[in-house]
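Entry 12.
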Amino acid sequence: MDQNSNENTENNADNAANSLNAANVANAANAADANNAGTATAKTGETDNFNPKAVVAIIAGMIICLILGTAGNAILPEWVVSFFAAAVEISPFVILAILAYASKKYDGLKIITTIWLLLLILGMAFVTFGMGLIAVLPADTVAGMTQAANSGVITEEASMEMMKSMEGQIGAIVGLFFGVVIAGLLALTAQIRAVRVWISRYIPIDPDSFVHKTALTTILAIIFIFAVPLIATGQPPLTSPNGITILSDSPAMSEGIMVNVYSLFWMIFGSMLIAGLFVSKTAAQVCERLGLRMPTAKEFALAIGVGVALVIVFHFIDTAISMFCKFAGLTLTDSAAVNKLFAPFLTPFAAILAAISAGFGEEIGVRGLLQERFGILIPTALFAMLHAFQYNWDGVLSVFFGGFIFAILRKYYHTTFTAITHSIYDLILFYMIIYGITI
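Predicted 3D structure (tokens):
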């Protein structure tokens, strides 16, 4: 009797265990099915609002801007060419972003996007190499190169003269060449999943997202490639003697006021397109994504006050940076050359437009567009290196610290707040130059 009872008890326990295991297996299967269904729904939802007509229209429009901005002089008024020329810098990046977004729906576009990315990196490397040459070659050689580029004709005599003049700068030229090659290869490491997994520990990117992979590679390419002239030649191209000479003869310098207006338009519009305007988001959604909102009266006043305070704070920060760079044996930025570079903007009205253009354009393009996805340090490094063609290392470090402060403000407020602060800060600096005020 006791033995039968024990056997029954054991059988009941086994049955209960089997029933429990079966229930667990069934529940796990149901959960997996639900998860798969949810994943499929999420993936479908990503492209629910996708507008393929907008993709075609935007890419076609950007290509037209590139053509008119670089080759429209023969058929268009000068101011129209200047308007489209202001789009040349951002159009390739808009095209890249739109192609990357479209690849979510059309997988075959990933190949085209990757090819365009490689061409973009190659183009940045080529331009940077050329800018570096401007900084180190003799003035006569650069003038000859500029004349040949404008005329489209390079004679054998001019070519021999160029080669002869390069012999004295062979070290810097080799450094520029290998510098842009290495910088491009470093940027391409973001194509490696293990690298993205490591980076994703520190910033909120999806290592398996093709869009994030493309964006990260592009950002790293700008950071690394734009640093090359300073590393290889020790001087920023735009404020070198040759750079100032070339820019002084360019239409952009003579039309400085309107160029700022055009640049601001394209930076804001381009950033909105990259954020998904027309392709997958409405204007309201894009503004929310970029952190653009109407500031309260208190925020507006505070933003102005912070901008004024930063002028005083950076007097001490810049002094410390200059002392550090002198100690490290680094050449300081030539302030007289910078003033020549900014000469078209050194009138009371032009300074206002330049400050608004830089403040709102840079904040929307960097803090608004990139910070939410790539954190604080990477966009701040990008912001600093975007100024590496006009400032030496002391100026680049100053811009980095300024960008870091703007990034913190963006984190606790919004992009409009930082744009106002940035504009006020730049405006005061411009006015100090105009009226010869020093702290």
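Annotation: The chain is about 75% helix and 0% strand. Confidence is low (pLDDT under 50) at residues 1-45.
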